[in-house]
Amino acid sequence: MRFQIARTRAIYDESSLGIGMWAPQGRLPVTAAATFYRAILDDIEDHDYDVFSRRGYVGTWGKVIRMSKIWWRSKRSS
């Protein structure tokens, strides 16, 4: 599981370079999805990789807290 999470993060890092090539109106949702999926990986790690008895997730407040940074990043990527 550690290997898969590290591999996934590497893919996210590499693909994030292309977000600036999206049309401006598409950058926010793509940046949000990437940020939330990365946070799910953090949650899985925080719970010792237990994906069988609980689901990795980002709650509503976790999303709300991240949104201003997501919005700013989506506006700056060009």
Secondary-structure element pattern, one letter each: HHH
Mind telling me the C-alpha Rg?
14 Å
- Secondary structure: helix percent: over 70%
Question: Which consecutive residue ranges, at least 5 long each, have pLDDT under 50?
Answer: none
What structural category arises from helix and sheet content? mainly alpha
Q: How many helical stretches? A: 3
Give the number of DSSP strands: 0
Overall geometry comes to: flat
N-to-C terminal Cα separation, in Å? 33 Å
Major sheet summary line? none
The proportion of strand residues reads under 5%
Task: Describe the protein.
The protein is flat and about 40 Å long. It has 78 residues and is mainly alpha-helical. The protein contains 3 helices and no strands. Helix content is 71%, strand content 0%. Helix 2 packs across helix 3 (60-76). The model has no long low-confidence stretch (mean pLDDT 91). It has helices at 2-16, 24-46, 60-76.
Concise structural overview:
The protein is mostly helical and 78 residues long. It contains three helices and no strands. The termini are far apart.
